[in-house]
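[stage:ingest] chain + small molecule (cytidine-5'-monophosphate)
[stage:ingest] validated
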Amino acid sequence: MSSLTNKRIVLGVSGSIAAYKAPDIVRRLQDLGAEVRVILTQGGAQFITELSLQATSKNKVHDNLWDKEAELSMGHIELAKWADALLIAPASANTIANLTAGKACDLLSSVVLASDCPVLIAPAMNQQMYASNGVQDNLATLVQRGIQVIDPAHGAQACGDIGEGRLAESTEIAKQVGSMFLSTKLSGKKVLITLGATIEAIDPVRYLSNHSSGKMGMALADACIEAGAQVTLIIGNISTSISEPSKQIYASSAKQMYQSVMENIKDQDIFIACAAVSDYSVKNPKNHKIKKSNQVLTIELTPTKDILKDVCQLPQKPICIGFAAETQNLLENAQNKLKNKGCDAIILNDVSSADLGFKSDENAVVFIDHKSSIKLAKNSKQKLGRKIIEIINKKFL
Ligand code: C5P
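[stage:predict] done
[stage:export] tokens:
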């Protein structure tokens, strides 16, 4: 897996002669596995054509804040939400000043304001401009706000001057974007995640189950792997691909999942119970297919053991995070679950709406612990997974 595999990068290209290098930056980001969308400012368009950037990024170039059609397909808010990181390369003195002032005067500055993902800028301008107090003060302010500056190189410039201000090499820019994602926050930590739906046999043909796809659990696994953790997955019935590298154990029924968790829980630092485990199993599953008849058929169910609750009661329990998929009295039910199960946090998701939660690629959740609750607005499960792991890291590690 490359450092930018599955990462979505918005590349802002602003008005500097170095904009002619932007298609190469797109290619180098793609080499590391990124999907790239480009925002071209008016200044940038003086130095590079939309067509070159469209051809290399394989996506429509975004260049206008007021384009009604673009707003309908992917407007500035969607673009900001879509991005895992914003890279501005080259970043002109004017764009740097806009960011410092918090302006929303064009599409690029608006997307920066509307996003909550990391922002990197690679300044490129004449060496005298770069050395000016105005630019240097602005860069210092941006660094203070958490924006990462990719320093320009020293050398001959397009204008004939020699000095610091040349855009950093495309490979170096892509490498710095990649390094930002190679976080080691969970380095050396072990994380056990249950995911997907369990299946409770009625007879050899029929079963009881639920709509869980395992996508949220897999997104959490990806985020843990990215952060350097050793991940063990206890996998129920899923309809998504499996994250590598991870230890993978398959468990079909609630009983098998319980056993697999208990066999693997020792020495784990974090347990995330993301699986939709059946609360009941069939009391006497039949060995042969039940024949159709006109009689009412009664199937007796017995409660399953609560994996999360039992892990929370282990003498050396890991940090325990549960999920609450609710359709009514959402907060109240989730808070009760937090107390009753004895876990450290519950992630609440509303599964009553069809476009969120089960099966969907998107979700909106509330992270509830014993002190506070944090609302995470609708976003892709991948992005929510990263945010949840960031919160777990900040709160408990
Ligand atoms: O009580 P409820 O099933 O709503 O709780 C949901 C949470 O408990 C989820 O984190 C789920 O993975 C976990 N759970 C479990 N074992 C069960 C039932 C639920 O670990 N038998």
